[in-house]
Specification:
The structure holds 2 protein chains of 2 kinds.
Chain A: H1 2-29, H2 34-39, H3 45-55, H4 61-73, H5 87-122, H6 127-141, H7 144-158, H8 171-199, H9 203-210, H10 215-252, H11 258-268, H12 271-299, H13 301-307
Helix pairs in contact in A: 1-12, 5-6, 5-8, 5-10, 5-12, 6-8, 7-8, 7-10, 8-10, 9-10, 10-11, 10-12, 11-12, 12-13
Chain B: E1 4-17, E2 20-33, E3 37-41, H1 48-56, E4 64-73, E5 76-77, H2 83-89, E6 94-97, H3 111-123, H4 127-140, H5 157-169, E7 175-179, H6 187-204, E8 207-212, H7 215-221, E9 224-229, E10 232-238, H8 239-244, H9 249-256, H10 296-300, E11 305-308, E12 312-315, H11 318-321
Parallel strand pairs in B: 3-8, 3-9, 6-7, 7-8
Antiparallel strand pairs in B: 1-2, 1-4, 4-5, 9-10, 10-12, 11-12
Helix pairs in contact in B: 3-4, 3-5, 4-5, 5-6
Classes of the chains: A mainly alpha, B alpha/beta.
Chain lengths: 308, 332
């Protein structure tokens, strides 16, 4: 088991390298010049050139990349061009907010979607199933920034129940968490339903029934554990989508997380900040998938035995 | 007290689908005496498994529906029972072994727990007691008890079927339904599993319904034989009666489909054609278009039930006029 986990951790290294490489070169291709942005419109050509030289912006991109990675391995993510603070301190300040938001969103959607998916499957083609699946389809189809705006209009502007943005206590978490959760709830529900439908047609479900196991226990004990394997995969993938969605949702709700930080940094062409945020996103996504893979092994003994 | 353990009368089961109604079982009458084994023989799609699932009341619904008839187990009408009562009977009084051992066990639960589950439900014992009984059951079917903590994927096909048998027998059922228990296994393993089932049947004094399409298996294990075709029992009798005095052309066809080891020049004579479309069964005898003895009356009228002695009967027009009609053994 330890070997399995170590192997999965080891596999994260090339992923992270690839991510930094891609992002670094894509940013270098975008137009605009960090030095002139820092110095403002009043700056002379001379002072800009001087700063470019000082920041190493005149070196070839590859050299800049190697220099950046050298720093990164020592834990130095550079300083923000815009604020002058270190990237790591800025991220350390913002990351917990994004973490709270996405984790509550994923909890919310798992809490809603698994029971609905299971009931939909056991009562296939019932009214509950049909209505549930239509709602799920609508949920999948709505982009999160739009959902967010609708929720703001309904619950903060019209009803005044929740604040429309900012981060003041638990109450301001509810709308953005719901916004994020809606799309992933929809797809986790559908996956749970379809894998559950497949599982309850399996022979071993009949074996269990033939033993005299009651209907509810068959579903809870025999079917759900098997059906969770595909559902968990989707939960992991949804987490990635959630992080992407956080970029938009945080902007809509002025939530001071990494997503918003990234959007602002892109606008300012604040390369170290953008890189830092992307790396944290990629790392978070990899860690979640690592956790998913470990969970697999606990649910499915066939996977576990491959590595023990 | 009657010796009948299981009595099925005029059982009719339909599958109602978007494409029409599949008449899977059309008036089946069978009975199993205490401690005896009935072989239910027929080709794929004859309605054998549907009949078996009806006894367990496990017909998937929808689309399946028990339209009419009665199924009595020790005098209790199973068809009128509520689900909660059925759960008490399943696994305790009547158990079932499914066809494919590779898929019949839950892959994420240890085999020990899968056996113990039935024991805990029906015998109201605690976890450790049930686990101990589960290990004993494993030993009985020839698997070391210390493998109880392993998962199904760690067992071979034959071993898995032994586990399935252990589950089915864990609460000493009075009736065991075995749905082609050896079909998915290697020939050598088949013999072992059959031998095991035969011994256990005697040991536990069970009645058994053995579903198979293998007449060799029937000869080995069964006391009575029912030949099933297109949802009806076309011939039934004791093993000797059916094997020694074959009456129905379909039964004869089944025997002719077995290779003759003593005379290899002897040609195999398979039954020509395919089973009638269950969406649209013929008006007369279902076997009409495949039968070498077909007469005009067979096309239009359902064959009558004709008895030969107390236990042996056949559903065929051939014997209506002359009771002593002899099949010609399929020779031209």
């Amino acid at each position: 088991m330890t070997r399995y986990i170590l192997r999965r951790i080891f596999m994260m290294i090339p992923v992270m390298l690839g991510v930094t490489l891609l992002v670094f070169f894509i940013i270098s291709l975008t137009p605009g010049d960090a030095a002139s942005m820092i110095l403002g419109q009043e700056a002379t050509e001379e002072s800009i050139q001087e700063l470019r030289e000082e920041m190493g912006l005149n070196d070839p991109t590859a050299v800049q990349y190697v220099r950046y990675m050298g720093g990164l391995f020592q834990g130095d993510m550079g300083r923000s061009y815009a604020t002058g603070k270190t990237v790591s301190s800025e991220i350390a300040q913002r990351f917990p907010n994004t973490f709270v938001l996405t984790v509550s969103a994923i909890f919310l959607s798992v809490l809603i979607s698994i029971p609905i998916g299971v009931v939909s499957a056991t009562k296939q083609y019932s009214i509950f199933d049909n209505v549930g699946m239509i709602i799920a389809l609508v949920g999948i189809s709505m982009p999160s920034f739009w959902t967010g705006l609708l929720l703001i209009i309904a619950f903060s502007l019209t009803l005044g129940w929740f604040p429309s943005g900012g981060m003041e206590g638990f109450i301001s978490l509810i709308l953005p968490a719901f916004t994020l959760a809606i799309a992933s709830t929809a797809s986790i529900t559908r996956t749970t339903r379809s894998s559950m439908l497949e599982v309850i047609r399996q022979d071993y479900i009949n074996t269990a029934k033939a033993k005299g196991v009651s209907k509810n226990v068959v579903i809870r004990k025999h079917a759900l554990k098997n059906a969770l394997i595909p559902a968990i995969t989707v939960i992991g993938l949804e987490f990635g989508i959630l992080l992407g969605g956080a970029v938009l949702t945080e902007t809509v709700f002025s939530w001071p997380g990494i997503g918003r930080l990234m959007v602002e940094s892109i606008q300012r062409k604040d390369t170290p900040m953008v890189l830092g945020s992307v790396i944290v996103f990629a790392l978070a996504f990899s860690v979640v998938n690592l956790i998913i893979d470990i969970l697999y092994a606990f649910i499915d003994p066939r996977i576990k035995s491959n590595y023990s | 007290m009657s010796d009948k353990l299981l009595k099925i009368e005029d059982l009719v089961v339909h599958y109602i689908t978007d494409d029409g109604v599949v008449e899977a079982v059309n008036g089946v009458n069978i009975g199993v005496d205490r401690g005896k084994t009935l072989g239910l023989v027929g080709e794929t799609g004859a309605g054998k498994t549907t009949t078996a699932l009806s006894i367990m009341r496990l017909i998937p619904h929808p689309p399946g529906k028990i339209v009419s008839g009665s199924i009595e187990l020790e005098g209790t009408d199973l068809l009128s029972l509520k689900e909660s009562r059925l759960e008490k009977i399943r696994g305790d009084v009547v158990s079932m072994i499914f066809q494919d051992p590779m898929t019949a066990l839950n892959p994420v639960i240890t085999v020990g727990d899968q056996i113990a589950e039935a024991i805990m439900i029906h015998q109201k014992v605690g976890q450790s007691k049930a686990a101990q009984k589960a290990r004993e059951m494993l030993e009985i079917v020839g698997i070391p008890g210390n493998r109880a903590g392993e998962y199904p994927h760690q067992f071979s096909g034959g071993m898995k079927q032994r586990v399935v048998i252990a589950i089915a027998l864990s609460c000493n059922p009075k009736l065991l339904i075995a749905d082609e228990p050896t079909t998915a296994l290697d020939v050598t393993i088949q013999a072992q599993v059959l031998e095991l089932m035969k011994n256990l049947k005697d040991k536990f004094q069970m009645g058994m319904v053995l579903i198979t399409h293998d007449l060799g298996v029937v000869a080995e294990v069964c006391d009575d034989v029912a030949i099933m075709y297109a949802g009806r029992i076309v011939e039934q009798g004791t093993l000797e009666e059916v094997f020694n005095t074959v009456k129905h052309p379909y039964t004869e066809g089944l025997f002719n489909s077995i290779p003759n080891i003593d005379d290899r020049r002897d040609k195999l004579k398979p039954i020509r054609g395919l089973m009638s479309d269950p969406y649209n069964l013929p008006k007369g005898c279902s076997f009409y278009d495949r039968c070498d003895y077909a007469m005009p009356v067979c096309e239009t009228q359902k064959p009558p039930k004709i008895h030969f002695g107390e236990t042996h009967f056949v559903e065929c027009h051939l014997y209506q006029e002359q009771q002593d009609f002899k099949l010609n053994g399929g020779k031209e």
